[in-house]
Structure to design on (216 residues):
């Protein structure tokens, strides 16, 4: 083992995120619909066992070997709702998400052309329906956010004594915010709502708007 070998190895290695058990990418699709700028959402098919059936989400899926995250987002959009890559202008990558199960998600904000919207054709095997939510509606929506605690569950086999710490060691706790948006009977929550909330906060900053109103 030499320093030169280390330098060569690490300089040619693609950077990742430590502990990630899977990498995914999603498209956050912007569309012009009925004269309004909207976000496009899909509802997962009820038959998707083990893949959060019935939940609202953005198009996306698992990154394949050798695939760039943006290409994953575009491929999955085509497979799930029939919009081809050439009908989507990628505006920007958004902040990467790592959830408590150590999945890493790469979101991309993309503008879908009118021709792309005309191509919409949901895959019955994966998608129950699609719907559009105006950005103005979401920006004006009173923020509804719940929080749960993530704490260490350490069993008796942990070698506290051997490493010189007491069993009362103050393991750090974490917190996860769970926003909820409701629109015409659709409930947007979980990872999808976290992405929406992050995007809305960025847009408020961009436009010089005040923070989101809170639920009464």
């Amino acid at each position: 083992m030499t320093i030169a070998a280390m330098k060569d190895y690490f300089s040619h290695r693609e950077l990742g995120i430590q502990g990630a058990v899977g990498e995914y990418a999603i498209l956050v699709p912007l569309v012009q619909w009925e004269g309004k700028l909207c976000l496009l959402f899909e509802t997962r098919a009820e038959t998707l066992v083990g893949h959060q059936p019935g939940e609202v989400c953005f198009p996306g899926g698992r990154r394949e070997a050798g695939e760039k995250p943006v290409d994953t987002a575009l491929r999955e959009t085509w497979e799930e709702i029939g919009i081809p890559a050439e009908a989507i202008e990628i505006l920007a990558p958004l902040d990467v998400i790592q959830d408590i199960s150590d999945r890493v998600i790469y979101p991309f904000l993309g503008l879908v052309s009118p021709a792309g919207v005309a191509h919409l054709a949901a895959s019955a095997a994966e998608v129950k329906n699609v719907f559009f939510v105006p950005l103005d509606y979401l920006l004006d929506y009173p923020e509804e956010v719940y929080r749960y605690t993530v704490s260490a569950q350490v069993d008796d086999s942990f070698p506290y004594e051997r490493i010189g710490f007491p069993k009362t060691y103050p393991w750090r706790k974490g917190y996860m915010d769970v926003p909820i948006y409701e629109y015409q009977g659709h409930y947007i929550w979980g990872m999808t709502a976290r992405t929406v909330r992050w995007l809305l906060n960025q847009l408020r900053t961009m436009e010089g708007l005040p923070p989101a109103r809170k639920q009464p």
Notes: The CA atoms of residues 127 and 165 lie 51 Å apart. The longest strand covers residues 22-33. DSSP finds six helices and eleven strands in the chain. The two ends are 63 Å apart (CA to CA).
